[in-house]
Structures are given as structure tokens and as C-alpha cells.
TrEMBL record:
It comes from the Bacteria. This is Sugar phosphate isomerase/epimerase. SUPFAM superfamilies: Xylose isomerase-like (SSF51658). One of its GO terms (molecular function) is isomerase activity. Pfam families: AP_endonuc_2. Keywords: Carbohydrate metabolism, Isomerase. Residues 49-312 form the Xylose isomerase-like TIM barrel domain.
């Protein structure tokens, strides 16, 4: 198919993970800034740089420190559009919650899912990426990343149940969930991802892969996209050093030890066959291709401009798109 530049959007990770990986990786301590009140003042600047880099859209990300209405105003002021955001759900028992016999507590476990449905619909979106939450203790973060570490078939089936319930909640609100894989979660490897997709009806759950994270686990992402193309509603793409990824898997390296290396790269600077994978999408693909640089290899604004330059070099302007 022929993707155009209008298919592409950006997640603003560049601006909040510059130092992430230099220490423990704990949110709020080494660069993860979305949850800090101080980021409110930076948000309009960041969105302006996304626009000035060349992008016309950005991933939906309402800050926990702002109202939905305030976020909508900031985005409108930036001149950007929003594209599908991201929501995750964990296993209650791994977070110290026993919902046995407590229907109300179990119902409330999905409140965050409902809020993201509300955010999506308010901003005119009807799709969202749905992922498993990082498990406390983080064995796939702190012990070994991208290798299916500590696999447990029964636990994966529990993940299927919870993901399925979350998908039902979203679908009931008119939002289509797309299953998202992520290194560090219980849906990490190709086999785990496919297991969940096979267990839940396509009518309830689309596919929303991160082909960078799949490549990190050693998956042939071109073949994977080709095999699942008709189920993909939207996808994340990222580039990385796949030789480093292979070495890190073999050595059972923790997530943030890998991230501390020059591992994540702007599109076109690494080894992930992004263009070849995207070429396997169906001709009528109408979703979003979300560019992510989990940790930039250069200054954030330069990273965004480099990312857009790769898009502009490889994909044509949409027929109705004005020249930038």
C-alpha cells in the first residue's frame, strides 16, 4: 500500500525520557515527567516543537495533573490533531487486590479504562491501544527483558481474561481497543501476543502492535505484520540497534540497562525493517502509524525533526496536504 505523511503521528517520549535509564528507571525520579506539575508549563512548548518538526498530529496523552478540557485547549492552541492514546490494565492480584466475591471492587478495577474511553471520545477518537500493565516486582524489567522471562501459561490466561474484560468495557463505550505488546509486560513475545489475539475475538479486539518491541524480542516483524495485517487498526513503530537487542536477550539483561545504551534510535538510524513491515499493511489502511523514540539519541527537538525527515523522505504528502 502507499502510506502518506498524514498516517504518521508522534508520541512525545523524546522530551521526557532523556535521562531515563541512567539510574533505576523509577517513574518520576530520572526523567519520567508526565506526572509532575512542572510539566504543565512545558507541555505547550513540547507540542509546538512537535508541530514545528513537521508533524500534524500527536498521540493523545492527558496529563494526570490537568483536566480533559485543559488538555483539549492546549492541543487546539498547538494546531495539532490527536491520534489514539494508550491504556493498560494489570492483574488485580499482582497489585495486592483480591476481588474474590467482591463484584464492586472488580468493577472499579476498570475505572481507568472507562476514563480513557471518555478522553478518546471527547477528543473525537474511537480507537485506543490496550496493553498489559507492568507487574510489580517487574521481573521482565529488573531481571531480563525481551526474552519471555518468568513465563507462566496460567498467568497468561489470566491476562487474557482481564484484557478481554477491558476490551468489553471499551467496546461498550464505542471505542475499539487494539492489543498492544510491550517489552517488560506479560504480553512481550510473539507467542504471548499471538496467544492473546487468538483467545479474543477480532470483533472485540483489534491488533495494535509495537513492531519495535516485537523486533526487540527477535520477531520477524515483516512476516508478523503480513500475517496480521487485516486485524491491525493502528501501530507503533520504533527503531533500535538489533545487534544490541540480541546480545541483551542472550545475556538476560534488565530493561533499563539496555535503555542506558545507545539502543533506541530515530527511524532510519537503526536496524528495524520499518518500511518493509509497513508495506505489508492493507491498501485501505486508515489507521495511525505512531512514531516513538523511547530514548532519543540526540536533543529532543532534533530527534523529532529527524523522525519527520525520515517520514518525508520515504512517504508522499497526502493529496489534500498543503506543502509544508
Amino acid at each position: 500500500m502507499t502510506l502518506t505523511r498524514d498516517h504518521f503521528s508522534l508520541n512525545t517520549l523524546q522530551w521526557i525520557t532523556v535521562s531515563l535509564g541512567d539510574s533505576t528507571g523509577d517513574p518520576g525520579s530520572v526523567g519520567w515527567e508526565f506526572d509532575r506539575p512542572s510539566f504543565l508549563a512545558r507541555q505547550p512548548i513540547v507540542l509546538g516543537q512537535v508541530r514545528d518538526a513537521g508533524f500534524s498530529s500527536v498521540m493523545l496523552e492527558v496529563l494526570p495533573t490537568q483536566t480533559l478540557q485543559a488538555y483539549a485547549r492546549v492541543v487546539a492552541d498547538s494546531g495539532l490533531k490527536v491520534t489514539p492514546g494508550y491504556v493498560h490494565i494489570g492483574l488485580p492480584e499482582e497489585f495486592g487486590r483480591d476481588h474474590t466475591g467482591d463484584d464492586e471492587a472488580h468493577f472499579r478495577w476498570f475505572d481507568g479504562i472507562r476514563r480513557r474511553a471518555e478522553e478518546s471520545l471527547y477528543l473525537g477518537l474511537d480507537r485506543v491501544f490496550l496493553a498489559a500493565d507492568m507487574a510489580p516486582g517487574r521481573p521482565r524489567i529488573d531481571e531480563a527483558a525481551a526474552s519471555g522471562h518468568a513465563f507462566d501459561a496460567a498467568r497468561l490466561d489470566r491476562v487474557v481474561n482481564v484484557i478481554g474484560e477491558a476490551a468489553e468495557v471499551l467496546t461498550a463505550e464505542g471505542v475499539t481497543p487494539a492489543l498492544h505488546n510491550h517489552v517488560g509486560t506479560w504480553i512481550e513475545t510473539e507467542a504471548e501476543y499471538d496467544h492473546v489475539l487468538d483467545a479474543i475475538s477480532p470483533s472485540l479486539l483489534a491488533a495494535g502492535p509495537d513492531i519495535g518491541h516485537l523486533a526487540w524480542t527477535g520477531t520477524d516483524v515483516v512476516a508478523w505484520v503480513a500475517a496480521h495485517a487485516d486485524r491491525i487498526s493502528d501501530l507503533h513503530v520504533k527503531d533500535m540497534d538489533l545487534a544490541l537487542a540480541k546480545t541483551a536477550r542472550e545475556k538476560k539483561t534488565p530493561y533499563f540497562d539496555v535503555m542506558a545504551e545507545r539502543f533506541f534510535l530515530e527511524p532510519g538510524l537503526g536496524d528495524v525493517p520499518i518500511r518493509e513491515a509497513l508495506a505489508e499493511l492493507p491498501d485501505d489502511f486508515g489507521g495511525t502509524v505512531l512514531i516513538e523514540v523511547d530514548k532519543p539519541s540526540m536533543e529532543p527537538f532534533e530527534s523529532a525533526k529527524t523522525s519527520w525527515a525520515w517520514i518525508a523522505e520515504n512517504y508522499p504528502a497526502a493529496p489534500t496536504e498543503a506543502h509544508r
